[in-house]
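Technical annex B. To support the medicinal chemistry partners, we prepared a structural model of the target in complex with magnesium ion, based solely on the information shown next.
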Amino acid sequence: MVWNGEEAPILRVRGLTRTFPGVRALDRVDLDLRAGEVHVLFGENGAGKSTLIATLAGVHAPDEGSIELRGEEVRLHSVHDAREHGISAVFQEFSLVEELTIEENLFLGNELKRGPFLDRKAARRRARELLESLEFPLRPERKVKTLTRAEKQMVEIAKGFRSRVSVLILDEPTASLTERETESLFALVRKLQAKGAGILYITHRMAEIREIGDRVTVLRDGRKIETVDAGSTSEEELVRLMTGRVIDQIFPSIEFSPGAEVLRVEGLTTRSGHVRDASLEVHAGEIVGLAGLVGSGKSELLRACYGLDGIASGRVVFLGEEVNGQSPRRMIRRGFFYGPPDRRAEGLLMNRSVRENILLPAIGTAAYRRGGFLRTGKERDTAAELAARLQLQPPRIERPVSQFSGGNQQKVLLAKSLTRDFRLFVFDEPTVGVDVGTRTEIYRFLAELCEEGAAVVVISSDLPEVLHLSRRAYVLYRGEIKAHLVGEEITQENVLQHFFEREVA
Ligand SMILES: Nc1ncnc2c1ncn2[C@@H]1O[C@H](COP(=O)(O)OP(=O)(O)OP(=O)(O)O)[C@@H](O)[C@H]1O
Ligand SMILES: [Mg+2]
C-alpha cells in the first residue's frame, strides 16, 4: 500500500475483536481516524466504546484484528508502548496515585532526569507550563488526595497532553468539568487538531458532538453501525443509529400529588460557606429540581442536610424533627437516601459484587420492605429483582461492579435506593455518563418513586432534566438560592436568567 500523507488515515483499525468471559465487547470493528479530525465514538452504555479505546491505548490486546498507525501495522503491548507510538489516552477511570503530588503524577514513569537524578525543578516547571496551557487552576505541588473529582479529572487530562501526541483519546473527559474548564479543554483539542493530531472522543452529550465533532462512529453491542458526518446528522438520527429504535419520549409524564412536608430547610449556611442562608422545602409526592452551575452550592446544600457537610447556622427539619448535624448513618435510618454524583469515590465499592453493593444500605435492618417484592428476605432475590427493575446489563449480580460499563454502574447506585423504606430520595447528577436509552429508564424510575408517594430531589447540571422532571425548582448561584419556580414557570429562560450574575445597568 502506498503511504499518502494527505489521504491515508493516521490510525486504521480493521476487524478488531475483543471478548471478555461471556461477552463479545468488540465484534470486528473497523475505524479510520484522520489527521486533524475529532472523531466521536457514540453508543449506549456497554456498547464497547471504552473497550475499543483501551485496546488502542495498549491496555487490552485484541483477540483478532489489526491496528495500523500511519500505514504500518503496530502491536501495542502496554500503555507505555502506545505512548511511545504517540497514542495517549485519558480514561473514564482515573489512574492517579493519591499519595503523590500533581507533578509527581504527571511525570510518573516518565521522570525528567538530570544525570542519574530526578530533576525536580524541571518537573515543576513543565508541570506548571502544562497546567497553564490548559488553563487549569492547579498548583503542581498539591497532593492528589486533596483534590476534588473535577480537579483530578484535570490532572488526568493534563497527563494525556504531557508528551508529543499524534493520537489523543478522551473518554467522557467533561463529565465533571465546569463550562469554563470544558472550554479550555476544547481550545487545546483544537490546537492539537490544527497540528494534525487525530482525536478520538467519547461522549454521551449531543451538544459536545455539535461543538467539536467532525465525524461520529456509532457502536452498538460491540459492532460498528455506521460512521457519519457530525455536522449533517440530526440528533434523532444519531439516537436511532445508537439504539436501533426511535425514542420519541425521553421524559415521562408524571402525576404529582404533593402531600405532607418531608424536608424543610431554613436559613442554612454551611461551615464551608459554599451555601448561604438557603431555605427550601420538599413534599411527599413531588420532584423538586435544584439547578445551578458547578460550584453554585446546589450539591452542598443537600449534602449538609444529609450530614456530610458541616452546618454553621440555620435549621434542617426532616419529617417534623430537627436533624441538624446528624450523621449520614442516622439519616439513612430516618429514611433519607442520598445518591452521590461520584459513584466511584462515594457511591460504590468497585471490587464488590452488584449484590453486595445493592444491599449495603439495608445492612443492619432486620426486615426491609418496599412495594411487595422485598419480603422474602432472600438477598439474592432482592438484588436480582432490583437489577431487573433497572434493566441491568448484563443481569449478573455476582459480578464485581468494576466489570460493568459506566451507565450500568449508575443503575447499581440507583438500585441501592430501593432496599429500604426511604421517605426522601436525593439524586445528585443521576444520569452522568448514562446513554439516552438508560436515561429514559432512570427518569421513569424517578417518576414511579414520586407517584408511589416519595419525596424526590434531583440535583442536576443537565438543564433539560430539571425542566422536565420538576414540579418545583430552585436555582442557585454562588451559594444562594436566587429563584424558586413552580410548574409552568420552570422554563429554560427563567432558569438560565439566574444561572449567571446579571449586570445591573
Ligand atoms: N473487565 C471486564 N470484564 C468483563 N466484562 C467487561 C469488562 N470490561 C467491560 N466489559 C463488558 O464489555 C462490554 C463493553 O463495555 P464498555 O465498558 O466498553 O462499554 P462502554 O461503551 O464504554 O459503555 P459506557 O458508556 O457505559 O461507559 C460490556 O458488556 C461490559 O460489561
Ligand atoms: Mg465507557
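Notes passed to the chemistry partners:
The domain at 249-335+422-500 is CATH 3.40.50.300 (Rossmann fold).
Confidence is low (pLDDT under 50) at residues 1-5, 364-377.
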